[in-house]
C-alpha cells in the first residue's frame, strides 16, 4: 500500500509533456510559431520538470525562444515584433522609398519647369484625374499688353516714381505769378529756323497727347498771316509766340529782329493760356526742389531743363519727350 501513491506519481505524464510539445511543434507549418502546451498549476509535478520551464520561458519572452531550430528558417510572429519597430523610409512625397507614385512623372516635369512640389504628407496623394493632371502644366499665360501699355511697363522698370508736394507746387506758382523771362544767349544759346526740322523720336510717341509733337513743322510767316490765323501772339523771353489749343509755338517771321528761342517746338501750358515762360519757370522750380534740375530758374527751355524733364519722365513711366507735354504737366500737378 505504501508504494501505490508512488506509482500514481510516475513520470508518465510529466515525461510525455515535452514530447507532446515537440510533436505539436512539428505539426505546425513553417512560418508560424508553435504554441507549446504548458502544464497547468493543477498538474502534479509540473514545476519539477525542467523541460516545461524552458518551454514556458519560450512563450513569455518577447521575440526570443529556446526551442530547437527556432533561429533557423523561423519567422517571428507579428504579435512578437517590437512595439517600437522603425517605420519604413519614405520619400519627400510621403510614399515608401522606391514605391512608384501616381504623379511621379508629372512631378518630375513640374520640377524641371521650376514649379513648386507639393508639401510632404504622410498620406499618399490622391490619384490625379485627366482634368486636374494637366491643369498646372497648361496654365494660361498672361494676356499680352497693348503697345502703349507695354511701353509704359518697360519705362517703369526701375522707376523711382517721384512725386512733387502739392503744397510746394502751389507755393511756387504763386511766387511766379508775375514771372518774365529774359534772353540769355550766352548761357542758353538760341536755336535757328530749319523748315525741314522734325522733333527727334516723335514718330514713336504713341497717343493723341503727343500728336502736336509728331505733326509739328516749323513755318515762317509775317505778322498779317499770324494775326489772321491766331487771336493771340505775344513777345515772350526775346521771341514771339502764338497760342493754339493749349500750346505755345514759336512765331517764326513775325519779327525777324526778335527771334530768340531756346527750343523750337510746342510748349504745353494747359487751357488757361498762361505765358510759356511762367510755366517753364514753375516746372524748373519744382524739378529743382525734387533734385532733377540744377540750373537757374530762368523760364527758358534750354538743354539743362530738357535733361531734367527727360530724367523725371523716365522715373515716372512717361514717354521721354524732353519737352513740357500734357502728361508731364499733369503728373507735376500743374495741368
Give the helices and strands, then pairings.
Elements (H helix, E strand, L loop, with lengths): L3 H5 L3 H16 L22 H11 L43 H9 L17 H4 L13 H9 L10 H10 L35 H4 L8 H7 L3 E4 L2 E6 L2 E4 L16 E2 L7 H14 L13 H13 L10 H6 L4
Antiparallel strand pairs: 1-2, 2-3, 3-4
Helix pairs in contact: 7-10
Uncertain ranges: 1-87, 97-101, 115-126, 128-159
Structural class determined from secondary elements: mainly alpha
Largest sheet: 4 strands, antiparallel
Arithmetic mean pLDDT: 71
- Give me the count of strands: 4
Order of helices and strands: HHHHHHHHHEEEEHHH
- Proportion of beta-strand residues: under 5%
Strand order of the largest sheet: 1-2-3-4
State the shape: globular
Report the span from N to C terminus: 137 Å
Rounded to the nearest angstrom, the radius of gyration is 50 Å
Number of helices: 12
Query: Helical amount among residues, as a percent range?
Result: 25-40%
Describe what you observe in this structure.
There is one protein chain. The chain has 335 residues and is mainly α. It is built from 12 helices and 4 strands; from the N terminus they run αααααααααββββααα. Strands 1-2-3-4 form a 4-stranded antiparallel sheet, with no helix packed on it. A hairpin with a 2-residue loop joins strand 1 and strand 2. Helix 7 crosses helix 10.
